[in-house]
Description:
- By secondary structure, the chain is mostly helical.
- The chain has helices at about 1-25, 30-80, 80-105.
- Belongs to the BORCS8 family.
- Keywords: Lysosome, Membrane.
Amino acid sequence: MEEPxxxxxxxxxxxxxxxxxxxxxxxxxxxxxxxQEHVRRSLPELAQHKADMQRWEEQSQGAIYTVExxxxxxxxxxxxxxxxxxxxxxxxxxxxIRDHMNAAAQGHSPEEPPPPSSA
Length: 119
């Protein structure tokens, strides 16, 4: 009869011991310690990721500035096409006048040079 009684007492003792270990393992200070361990292990990697992201952001900002500057340059070229056409007309007129002057210098009768265009 002592055997079942001893088993009951042993079970009570192991249950109490298990409950005590469970309470100790889940105590708030232990949880904070575990959290501190996790932060200490994770922080260097997170700091490196942050530095990488900042470097990539700087590179991206530089690339964005370059693209915006190139777009602005292209837009200015498109807007200046009027001026290029005007210069082209003036160059054609200058070549025509030069040809007339060369013809007059060689003794040919020059044709009337075209009137200057106002561009």
